[in-house]
Write a structure and sequence with these properties.
Shape of chain B: elongated
Radius of gyration of chain A: 25 Å
CATH class of the largest domain in chain A: Alpha Beta
Strand order of the largest sheet of chain A: 1-4
Strand content of chain B: 15-25%
Largest sheet of chain B: 6 strands, mixed
Helix content of chain A: 25-40%
CATH topology of the largest domain in chain A: Alpha-Beta Plaits
Helix content of chain B: 25-40%
Order of helices and strands of chain A: HHHHEHEEEH
Oligomer: heterodimer
Number of domains of chain A: 2
CATH architecture of the largest domain in chain B: 3-Layer(aba) Sandwich
């Protein structure tokens, strides 16, 4: 009996070393659901810190504004908790957008470069800056630091590029009433 | 007689093909305005290369391909570009799209046309030529042909002339009237792909076309195969299965099994491009349905549908128009939309020909749809999952193998618009996939930025440490020269002081060195002006100082 216990203990001990999980897998899963806008509207300095806070269980799941209800529902599903209505700050839904620098007005101060969480702004001191639209997440973090207010947010995927098929809506016959009419 | 390998399912709707084949094809008159959308093909829309006011010749390139999966767009007639603006496009969304508006001058002056010897060009050059000339699949999907041609060492080239959808007869008419030219086009496609065998699949409800093609194919080795009339035998995957017995793998391409498929009208345009130097600027369009004179017309791309349908005299009780066939076509909300490369047919609808569907009833899981599905799917399950927005499950049931042919909706005894659910689910999945990719990119870039910031911090700290050590060493040497008067405890303070002093010296030197950079090599007049301004400035300064002095003395007196 003791021999068996020692053997199993050795196996378990070996397994715990051999199959050690690096990092917290839950945080990775939460991070994969978050939209990675890195806007900080949830009160954390980015998506990963928010994911870590959710993983540690010390914050609500309804704080992500860009993700909206869909993200909240998926988080609730992953964590096995009840869905919650979105927090007041997160409830305002905005269309997908990217920042646009008015190149005539830009003075080349580099303040927006430092604010951009995904390095999507190209420029140098006293040189005109511009935004790589394909890499901009639309977080709006570059708007407040701009001293000349030359950055605007432009909606993307308008017109045919952003068009998609809608959920089909069609009339359904009321079987009971139809039967009555027929009778 | 070739053995055929029937595909699963299929339906046989009323053909309605006879109406529009009574008369031979005619040429539609030149409209005053042509509206040429820049998105007439799969992939990126073309980029306009003309601007409003430009005079263009017939066949001149007005939009150039943007990227690999894109194609060029050409002026269908000579005239003047009046605008490049958003115009309604023949698209299920009904949304406007960027189009070039051409005012025709009626002269039909061609740009210089050059036939090329395709055997003298390597296949890659030929593909580039096709992209430049706007060759796209004219069966309806308008995928750029040069992309499809990019596969060598092909076993079988299938020419799709099945034309399985009811009402449509443009390919039938093309083969009846221009079989020899179609065959020349097939030769080009065969050369470009190095295909060993060419099979031309034609549904057996087109005996005239079959006969014409058989005569034209004599001595070429191409085989004309009459296939049974069964919708959707004109779908590429189904036709390949039917003719070769090979099945295109799920999510794969026909080239993986050594087969490629081109529509018969597409190979005809290949012939026009290569042997006549004419880009794709017109196509045969069937005008049929609730019309007095249904017929096929050779129509310039960009011709407004509203003007075109008048040729076939729609009847008074016409309720609307469909672009494409009755199974997969798009209802046109706006008749100002133009004919595009994808427009094979325009059907006038009426209550008698297209009675409104009865109201839908719940799915009773009768699996009639599964019996009819040519892609061997389980449409009732796909409907269930799409309706519940359970997209993962829908993908597990191979939603993306659905060809949206509409057989399931056609046979559904509950009249459920099944295909609409599949389209909805597909576009939701595509959107989600796009968002996921964007999120991955953002995560990667954000992580790299954090890594970069950390690295810069460390580099800065290391630099500071190195500098401090250097200064300390210098200060130590200096104090050593001074007779080692200062003791060890004062070393750090002395180093700091020395560093500050050095910095002040450097700043001073820099300030002294700086002088205005833009006053070198000035013309004498400008130099004189600058001197004058400087003088005025000095005077102003002096006056200001004087007034301040006066004020001060005033204040002093007051006190």
């Amino acid at each position: 009996m003791i021999g068996l216990a020692v053997a199993l203990g050795a196996v378990l001990g070996f397994a715990s070393l051999k199959f050690k999980v690096e990092g917290n897998p839950l945080v990775e899963k939460v991070d994969a659901i978050l939209p990675q806008i890195q806007c900080g509207q949830c009160g954390f300095p980015g998506c990963k810190p928010y994911a870590e806070a959710i993983g540690a269980g010390n914050t609500a799941i309804n704080l992500c504004a860009p993700g909206g209800e869909a993200t909240m529902l998926r988080l609730a599903d992953l964590l096995g908790v009840e869905p919650q209505p979105l927090a007041a700050d997160a409830a305002v839904q905005k269309p997908k957008q990217v920042a646009l620098i008015d190149e005539q007005t830009c003075i080349g101060c580099t303040l927006c470069l430092q604010a951009c969480p995904v390095d999507a702004i190209v420029g140098a001191a006293k040189q005109m800056h511009t935004i790589i639209a394909s890499e901009c997440t639309g977080c709006e973090l570059c708007l407040p630091p701009c001293p000349v207010d030359c950055i605007t947010m432009e909606p993307v995927d308008v017109g045919m590029n952003g068009w998609k098929w809608q959920y089909p809506v069609y009339p359904i016959s009321d079987v009971r009433n139809d039967a009555e009419v027929a009778a | 007689m070739r053995t055929l390998y029937p595909f699963h399912g299929g339906v046989h709707p009323v053909e309605h093909k006879r109406e529009s084949t009574q008369l031979g094809s005619a040429i539609a008159p030149l409209p005053l305005h042509l509206v040429i959308p820049l998105r007439q093909h799969g992939g990126n829309p073309a980029k306009p290369v003309v601007s409003a006011g430009d005079q263009v010749l017939k066949g001149q390139r007005i939009g150039t391909a943007e990227g690999y999966i894109s194609s060029s767009v050409h002026a269908p007639s000579s005239g003047r570009v009046v605008a490049i603006e958003m115009r309604p496009a023949p698209h299920p969304s009904g949304l406007p799209d960027l189009s070039i508006i051409l005012e025709t001058d009626g002269e039909e002056r061609w740009i210089e046309r050059q036939a090329v010897d395709y055997r003298a060009i390597d296949p890659a050059g030929l593909r580039q030529h096709f992209q430049d000339m706007g060759v796209v699949g004219l069966g309806g999907a308008v995928f750029p042909s040069h992309v499809k041609l990019n596969a060598g060492n092909l076993e079988t080239l299938v020419i799709n002339a099945a034309e399985c959808e009811p009402y449509i007869t443009c390919d039938d008419m093309l083969m009846r009237e221009r079989a020899a030219e179609v065959v020349q086009g097939i030769r080009i496609a065969q050369y470009a792909m190095g295909a060993r065998e060419v099979l031309i699949g034609i549904e057996d409800n087109k005996p005239e076309a079959i006969a014409a093609m058989q005569i034209a194919c004599q001595g070429t080795g191409f085989e004309v195969v009459a296939v049974p009339t069964l919708y959707p035998s004109g779908s590429a995957k189904q036709l390949i299965k039917l003719l070769t017995g090979k099945e295109v793998p799920s999510g794969g391409l026909p080239t993986q099994i050594g087969v490629q498929c081109f529509n018969v009208a597409t190979v005809y345009t290949m012939h026009r491009v290569v042997n006549h130097g004419e880009p794709v600027i017109s196509r045969l369009v069937t005008l049929t349905g609730n019309m007095d004179e249904p017929r096929n017309y050779e129509v310039l791309v960009g011709t407004p549908v509203g003007e075109l349908v008048k040729l076939a005299r729609p009847k008074a009780d016409t309720t609307g128009y469909l672009m494409g066939g009755p199974m997969m076509g798009v209802p046109l909300a706006d008749l100002s939309v133009p004919v595009v490369k994808a427009s094979n047919c325009i059907i006038a609808t009426s209550k008698a020909l297209f009675p409104p569907l009865p109201r839908a009833m719940p799915c009773i899981r009768c699996t009639r749809c599964a019996e009819a599905c040519p892609a061997d799917l389980q449409p009732q399950e796909l409907f269930w999952f799409s309706r519940a927005r359970n997209f993962e499950k829908a993908q597990e049931y191979k939603l993306f193998d659905c060809i949206e042919c509409g057989c399931c909706s056609y046979v559904c005894p509950s009249h459920i618009p099944l295909v609409q659910f599949y389209r909805f689910a597909k576009s939701e999945i595509a959107e989600h996939e796009k968002e996921r990719k964007a999120a991955d990119l953002a995560r990667e870039r954000h992580e790299f930025r954090e890594f970069r910031q950390e690295r810069e911090k460390q580099e800065k700290a290391a630099k500071h440490a190195a500098k401090a050590a250097e200064m300390a060493a210098k200060a130590a040497a200096a104090s050593g020269k001074a007779g080692e008067a200062a003791e060890g405890g004062d070393d750090a303070a002395a180093a700091k002081k020395a560093a500050i002093q050095a910095a002040i010296e450097r700043a001073k030197a820099k300030k002294a060195a700086v002088k205005p950079q833009n006053v070198d090599d000035l013309p004498p007049g400008a130099q004189a002006k600058i001197d004058e301004i400087d003088e005025r400035r000095a005077q102003a300064k002096e006056t200001a100082e004087q007034s301040v002095a006066v004020q001060k003395s005033d204040k002093g007196q007051g006190a």
